[in-house]
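Support request, please re-run this one:
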Amino acid sequence: MAKSKPSKLPAIETTEDLHATVDKVAVLEAEKRGLEAARDIDLQKVRTKHDAQIEEKGTLIKALTNLCATYCKAKKASLFGKLKSAASALARFGIREGTPALCLLNKNHTWETVLARLKDRGLTEYVRVVEEIDKEKLKGAKLTEAQLAELGLRVDTKESFFIESKSDDANRIKTATDDEV
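Re-run finished. Output below.
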């Protein structure tokens, strides 16, 4: 769906013009929220109408796929030969190899015990050490702008303009731009 462009916007030349425009935004936000609520109700009706059938079909697909997988794994050589897939009249089917994943041998092992064993055996080339900048601590530090600049840093605070309608309900209307003022 293409985004519509607003018609020619009025100029804001006085504080009264500003207030009128801000109030217009609040009214438009309320109207938009009402339309979104109506749309959501309509969508929920359609979902409710079809959800049971979709769920039923999904459950049947999963069960039949599992049944086929069991058969194919048992007859892998005769069904596929050296290939990884075959075809029926309406679909392709096969067995995909996943990406190799390192897993724990059994429940007696944890990643912490594996890490300790790697270190004990001097296999530290298989251990990652992650260094990263503590940005929060730096922002809270009493460093001057010059000291931060020496490190190649600066603290930047962006401003954004907002319009917040005065509304008594819990779902306050908000709109904001991320553009700097």
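The two ends are 30 Å apart (CA to CA). Helices lie at 15-74, 76-80, 111-120, 135-140, 145-151.
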